[in-house]
Design brief:
- The chain is mainly α.
- It contains 7 helices and no strands.
- α4 runs antiparallel to α6.
- About 8% of the residues have low confidence.
């Protein structure tokens, strides 16, 4: 490294130590919220002006739909709910921008019919807020892609988990049938099975249904032969 480059590096480090960033707690808080003016990119999901209870109901609706199991599925469901919440905010912000533009704009067609006035006011609002609307559109597209990717990831994860659960439940039922035929008792936890009685009963019903469907197909094929 040359002497000049070394000197520049020393100066840069010295300047960094003398950074004029916010020193007070209030200043640091304002600085941390600079990227959250529209609430679409930061870590804070529920803005101070929004209803926390409404968000909690929103999150619950996703949890009720996907019924996550484990930390990873719960994290993905949370990410889905947050992306959807922010997408809803984009729509609200777009409406507010247009309303602001219409209310604050001039009305050069004041002598025209009300339908024409309304249409031209919307056009003028779109033009006056074009930069902000384009910014919102960019965030909307990003959030939509994020939502779609998360849905795919969650569904693949749950499909893998459910396939494994069915496989393990079938193994457990086979073992239970074997022990029952010998008149012996069996403790599933001894082999690491952790299914509830409800899960076991549901799998028994499902397997019985599958057997009946197979029998129906065999009967149909034999009758058609």
């Amino acid at each position: 490294m040359s002497i000049a480059a070394t000197n520049r590096a020393v100066i840069n480090r010295a300047n960094a130590k003398q950074s004029t960033g916010p020193k007070t707690q209030a200043g640091k808080q304002r600085s941390s919220l600079n990227a959250l003016r529209h609430g679409l990119t930061g870590q804070i999901v529920v803005m101070p002006t929004e209803d926390l209870q409404a968000y909690q109901l929103h999150l619950k609706s996703f949890a009720d739909e996907y019924l996550p199991k484990g930390a990873t599925e719960a994290h993905l469901v949370q990410a889905l709910a947050d992306a959807s919440w922010r997408l809803n905010r984009v729509a609200a912000l777009e409406t507010n921008l247009l309303t602001l533009g219409i209310a604050g704009g001039a009305h050069p067609f004041s002598d025209s019919p009300s339908q024409v006035q309304d249409a031209m006011s919307i056009v003028a609002a779109l033009e006056s807020q074009s930069k902000a609307l384009a910014n919102l559109s960019m965030h909307s597209q990003r959030l939509s892609r994020q939502f779609e990717r998360t849905v795919v990831q969650l569904r693949e994860l749950q499909k893998t988990r459910r396939t494994q659960e069915v496989h393990d439940l079938n193994d457990l039922l086979d073992i239970l049938e074997m022990y029952e035929s010998k008149g012996e008792t069996y403790d599933p936890s001894s082999d690491g099975f952790v299914f509830s009685e409800l899960q076991i009963n549901e799998r028994i019903l499902a397997r019985n249904r599958e057997h009946r469907i197979d029998e129906a197909w065999d009967h149909h094929n034999s009758a058609a032969a």
